[in-house]
Amino acid sequence: MRMAGNTDWVAATATDPELACPTSSVVDIVFSRWTTPILWTLNTYGRQRFVELERRIGTITPKVLTQRLRQLERDGMVVRTYHPEVPPRVEYEISELGRSLAPLFAHLAEWAAANLNKVEQARHDYDTDPLQ
């Protein structure tokens, strides 16, 4: 990656939003609405059938779970195993690439424990400020 002092990089960031924030594609993969609960569940409980995963997550619709699992499989975060039985059985598990996100999630959990009360206080202050 070129540094901000490089005029070529600065010029590119002015025209290309992806270059302005080089982590945006990672953020899209990891922090989409349902990625975290899916990966967390697969990491915690291991290999899961669709119905088990759906039950453990709770509020996700089957359509959205199917879409997210397909995207996570495409991104290499989840492995889908098809068992040609009668009836057919499909299982999902977190991949090594998905598992490599564990330190990131651990840091986020630590940050949340240390700071969510500050966020709540800031929201309260903002919402009760008559000038807002």
From TrEMBL:
All copies of domain HTH hxlR-type, residue ranges: 21-120
UniProt keyword terms in alphabetical order: DNA-binding, Transcription, Transcription regulation
InterPro entries assigned: HTH_HxlR (IPR002577), WH-like_DNA-bd_sf (IPR036388), WH_DNA-bd_sf (IPR036390)
Superkingdom field: Bacteria
A Pfam family of this chain: HxlR
Coiled coil stretches, renumbered: none
PANTHER family: TRANSCRIPTIONAL REGULATOR, MARR FAMILY
Record protein name field: Helix-turn-helix domain-containing protein
Organism placement in taxonomy: Bacteria, Bacillati, Actinomycetota, Actinomycetes, Kitasatosporales
